[in-house]
Amino acid sequence: MCERCGQGLSHRFTPSRRGLLLGASAMLMSGIARAKEDRKDRKESKKPPKPQNVLSPEAALERLKQGNER
Prior knowledge:
With 70 residues, the chain is mostly helical. It has a domain at 14-45. Helix content is 67%, strand content 0%. It contains three helices and no strands. The protein is rod-shaped, with a radius of gyration of 31 Å. The termini are far apart.
């Protein structure tokens, strides 16, 4: 038995500065780890542009001129 049980006191949570710092640092570290995973997933999910969207500068200028004429 602990000292509190012998005195009839209940076991209530008593917040401490150390507990607050440990909890905050754990949350911070898990947030950093999650951000790294998200960044890694975004890099892998990027796809190269479609070949039909790739134009030479001259072809792009010609397409713009045709659009202006319409």
